[in-house]
Structure to design on (751 residues):
């Protein structure tokens, strides 16, 4: 990281939750929809506490989850999210095992519920799930005894991504409330966009959505966002520009005529970046399609790109989530 | 055969909005005489060859004719007061040849009659016409496109022309397959929030618009199995005013639920066409009241957990509706939207007319398919306790009123 980072947050959540309850009373983390702002801020606050340890050159280890088993059940391919959850679990001392759909009995026709029951019978203490179908993670969470963390389900939610994005914005900008955040790309198929809209709206940001009409979900304006189809019109006044990944299979003529045409209309290059606020932050959930949704010079912008920092915050946020959700089972005082 | 007299009944007679207290006499499985009306044959007088049933003041209505079910589910039909059903061709194997049609037509007899609908295309592929005339001779009462719309307009026109010549109604599904794509929900805030693949409501009107043109061109009787949107109903209304020979139907799901019923990924509320938004639901209720809709049916499609306990996008569409059809439809009467008489036009008389069968109304010479209904009897829908092959109802735990206490098919009481 090239620039000085803030080490404390301006929002302090610990005293904001109702008296007499735990700061995060939910059993699972299935999405950010429905979470209160103090619950989101509490997770961000807890994540902050892990950043220094993660950065230290000394041993990055805490043993609070020692002896607990965490299963990362990934029914859809992933590199960074899986790795991030695995590192998060291991840094907290847990025994982390990964299950890939490609190697599992899912290919042999076992139903999702049966797979869930199997994982449950192995007495996992937390299960992290990614699945290509919206709602699949919730379906599994109804059938298991331990906390379930959604690592992305279809086009529904990706809560830890939204939390890590919020943490990144909060640290870079000092606040979220009142910022104008522009999300551009394939919003229709994006769980990242949905979770970010819900999370950042709850935390008080102004949201702008930029997408071609065919990739704009119906009724999205009901969630308090302003919809644009012209990227140039959406950029002035933006504090944060969040680019979304465009899946290759969507730009072969079904939704988008060609990658170069998409870049022409919705790619973030230096000219467009100049339309936003001079200190606008550049974000991308990765993996990036350089030259299709974002120019390399923008993605690698020394001062304004937060893309690598997002990855870093991902580990801290996931550590916080694993810690919080296992507190009840670990008998942490006040979390019964 | 002995004659049967039912007295102390509140009979629902054609043309009457409300039931009237009358006596009904049944002979040789048919309605022989009603009340004091002079019968064409000498009325059997109460003597030792005549049985008598005291209806106990219950509503006696024509047995429900369920226009388009996906399974022959006799216990569920018995519970729901359904004496006949038109069976969709979407079976395994597909009902696309005379042998399967003949077999299906015999399946429920004698206490329940199945009127099979012939597949319009071979294996329901939407491309090659099936042997419609042979299936008609085997007992098919209509032709259906199945769960899907036929996207090839040329084939669809030729099927309609063929059926017009044969005098068979064509049952069509109304969702433009190109616009629908992989959608499992109606586009709107609910689908967006859940991240479900969705198509706009005009998917339906786009399909109806084309099929109305083809109906006009061919002169066929087209029955739009389910019309569920304001735009679709408006097109039907216009076409009826222009004198087109068309009819349309709906299920209670689209009358009483809107798309927010799929919140929480409830796969029991995944049906085809998908649930619509509240404005469309209100338009459907208005179309029931103004006569645009001709039929209410169950769309009975029992699905077990292996087809429903899946992520929403992977679960199969359909609901078990036979048991709840009457009780839910009675809400329309209680809410003052329609009369009891109109309700049974929707449930029995109109379906009989479309299928061209001698049932569906209580008048002399018709088949004595009767149901005795306690319209006030309260019960609770419970997906775990249903008599159907599966309990996939979106109305689980809903308190309802109205129960069939006795059912007669062809003058015989069905236990």
């Amino acid at each position: 990281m090239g620039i000085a980072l803030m080490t404390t947050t301006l929002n302090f959540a610990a005293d904001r939750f109702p008296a007499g309850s735990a700061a995060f009373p939910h059993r699972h983390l299935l999405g950010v929809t429905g979470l209160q702002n103090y619950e989101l801020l509490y997770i961000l606050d807890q994540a902050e506490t892990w950043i220094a340890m993660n950065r230290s050159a000394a041993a990055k280890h805490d043993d609070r989850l020692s002896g607990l088993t965490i299963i990362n059940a990934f029914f859809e391919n992933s590199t960074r999210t899986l790795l991030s959850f695995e590192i998060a679990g291991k840094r907290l001392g847990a025994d982390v095992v990964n299950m890939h759909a490609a190697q599992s009995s899912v290919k042999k026709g076992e139903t999702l519920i049966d797979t869930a029951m199997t994982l449950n019978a192995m007495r996992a203490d937390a299960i992290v799930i990614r699945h290509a179908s919206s709602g699949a993670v919730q379906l599994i969470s109804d059938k298991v005894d331990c906390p379930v963390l959604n690592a992305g389900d279809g086009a529904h939610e990706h809560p830890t991504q939204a939390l890590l994005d919020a943490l990144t914005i909060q640290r870079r900008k000092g606040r979220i409330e009142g910022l104008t955040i522009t999300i551009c790309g394939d919003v229709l198929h994006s769980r990242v966009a949905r979770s970010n809209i819900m999370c950042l709206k709850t935390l008080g940001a102004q949201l702008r959505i930029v997408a071609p009409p065919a990739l704009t979900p119906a009724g999205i304006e009901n969630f308090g966002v302003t919809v644009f189809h012209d990227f140039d019109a959406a950029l002035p006044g933006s504090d944060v520009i969040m680019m979304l990944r465009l899946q290759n299979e969507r730009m072969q003529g079904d939704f988008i005529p060609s990658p170069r045409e998409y870049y022409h209309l919705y790619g973030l290059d230096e000219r467009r970046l100049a339309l936003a606020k001079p200190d606008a932050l550049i974000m991308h959930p990765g993996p990036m399609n350089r030259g299709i949704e974002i120019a390399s010079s923008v993605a690698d912008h020394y001062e304004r790109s937060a893309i690598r920092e997002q990855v870093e915050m991902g580990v801290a946020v996931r550590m916080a989530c694993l810690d919080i959700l296992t507190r009840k089972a670990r008998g942490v005082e006040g979390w019964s | 055969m002995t004659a049967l007299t039912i007295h102390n009944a509140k009979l629902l007679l054609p043309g009457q909005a409300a039931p009237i207290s009358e006596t009904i006499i049944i002979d040789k499985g048919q309605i022989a005489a009603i009340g004091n009306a002079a019968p064409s044959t000498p009325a059997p007088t109460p003597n030792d060859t005549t049985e008598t049933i005291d209806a106990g003041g219950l509503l006696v209505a024509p047995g429900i004719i369920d226009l388009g079910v996906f399974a022959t589910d006799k216990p569920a039909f018995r519970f729901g007061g359904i004496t006949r059903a038109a069976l969709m061709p979407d079976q395994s194997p597909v009902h696309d040849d005379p042998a399967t049609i003949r077999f299906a037509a015999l399946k429920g007899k004698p206490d329940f009659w199945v009127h099979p609908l012939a597949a319009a295309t071979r294996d329901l592929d939407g491309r090659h016409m099936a042997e419609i005339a042979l299936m008609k001779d085997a007992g098919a009462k209509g032709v259906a496109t199945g769960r899907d719309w036929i996207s090839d307009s040329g084939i669809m026109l030729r099927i309609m022309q063929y059926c017009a010549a044969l005098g068979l109604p064509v049952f069509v599904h109304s969702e433009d397959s190109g616009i629908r794509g992989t959608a499992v929900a109606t586009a709107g805030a609910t689908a967006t929030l859940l991240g479900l693949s969705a198509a706009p409501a005009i998917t339906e009107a786009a399909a109806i618009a084309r099929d109305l043109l083809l109906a006009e061109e061919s002169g066929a009787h087209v029955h739009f199995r389910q019309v569920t949107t304001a735009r679709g109903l408006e097109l039907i209304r216009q076409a009826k005013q222009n004198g087109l020979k068309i009819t349309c139907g709906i299920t209670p799901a689209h009358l009483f639920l809107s798309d927010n019923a799929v919140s929480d990924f409830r796969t029991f509320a995944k049906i085809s066409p998908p649930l619509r938004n509240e404005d469309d639901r209100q338009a459907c209720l208005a179309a029931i009241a103004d006569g645009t809709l001709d039929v209410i049916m169950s769309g009975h499609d029992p699905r077990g957990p292996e087809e429903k306990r899946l992520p929403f996008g992977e679960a199969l569409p359909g609901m078990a509706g036979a048991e709840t059809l009457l009780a839910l439809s009675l809400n329309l009467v209680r809410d003052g939207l329609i009369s009891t008489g109109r309700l049974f036009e929707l449930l029995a008389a109109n379906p009989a007319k479309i299928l061209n069968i001698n049932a569906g109304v209580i008048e002399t010479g018709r088949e004595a398919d009767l149901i005795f209904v306690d319209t006030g009897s309260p019960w609770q829908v419970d997906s775990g306790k249903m008599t159907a092959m599966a309990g996939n109802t979106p109305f689980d735990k809903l308190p309802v009123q109205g129960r069939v206490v006795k059912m007669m098919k062809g003058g015989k009481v069905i236990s």
